[in-house]
Amino acid sequence: xNPRPTPVEAGRSCPDVRxxxxxxxxxxxxxxxxLYRRRSETATAAPCVVLxxxxxxxxxxxxxxxxxxxxxxxxxxxxxxxxxxxxxxxxPRQLLDIDxxxxxxxxxxxxxxxRPDIDPSRVALWGTSLSGGLVLTAAARDRRVAAVVSQVxxxxxxxxxxxxxxxxxxxxxxxxxxxRYAQLRRRPPYMFPVVGxxxxxxxxxxxxxxxxYHRMDPPGSTWRNETPGRVALxxxxxxxxxTVAKIACPVFFAIAxxxxxxxxxxxxxxxxxxxxxxxxxxxxxxxxxxFGELFERVVADETDFLVRHLRPPAxx
Length: 316
Hints:
Blueprint: E1 4-5, E2 17-26, E3 29-38, E4 46-52, H1 63-72, E5 76-80, H2 98-114, E6 118-128, H3 130-141, E7 147-151, H4 161-184, E8 191-192, H5 209-216, E9 227-228, H6 231-237, E10 251-256, H7 264-273, E11 277-282, H8 292-309
Parallel strand pairs: 4-5, 4-6, 6-7, 7-10, 10-11
Antiparallel strand pairs: 1-2, 2-3, 3-5, 8-9
Helix pairs in contact: 2-3, 4-6
């Protein structure tokens, strides 16, 4: 563990926030994490929000910017890499498996609840894109979760299929079969790109996808533009919108009004089914909430939501 102060954003600083390198175990493997806290509040059990990225994403791709703001407002933040990604353990690398990632969410939450400096009754989840769906599933399974932030969420894999077209569906099917064959032969996974230009073969080929991922990626990042073919079928069948009615806590939906990656209308439909949903619409596409003025607006709204819902019961 190595506490160190970190900047809240380029050109700004928050000397009261420190970042600590920690890790937790998930299914016997180590998940690397950063824990952010205000230095001035380390003597008390703080509320905490747990964050992880979307499809193939790693913690250094702008999650630190969100975590630092939450911590500056008094909400501790744990940012982790899934197994097989980033600084976490696990082979083969880049193995995106939804069930495994849900296990990692459960392990991350158990880890922060076990810490004496975190209040186990005030733990929230924050997810974006694919993890925006994962946190909905996790909260539906765990009624102790105190609040959820679901940003530009992936809520219904079936709605993504028509946009692929016949040719795209065919290429996804081939990638799936090639990867399954590699598994049977105990060979390395068959990989295809996460993002690519329109018309190419990749998981995301919208006009904003390739530029959005690379814009999030800082120098020295551990992110790799590859994903295993086996996830194609699993992602198509993943529908967190089917379980949102079971969520017992407040949910903040941050929805981009021109999202052509996870689809604006799909997120709105999921929010309409969610008890206690607080829906915020923002101008722009799927990747715009990570940057610039829109980031400032989104992170301020999310911080306000977390502070309101993670306050001690006596002060609400």
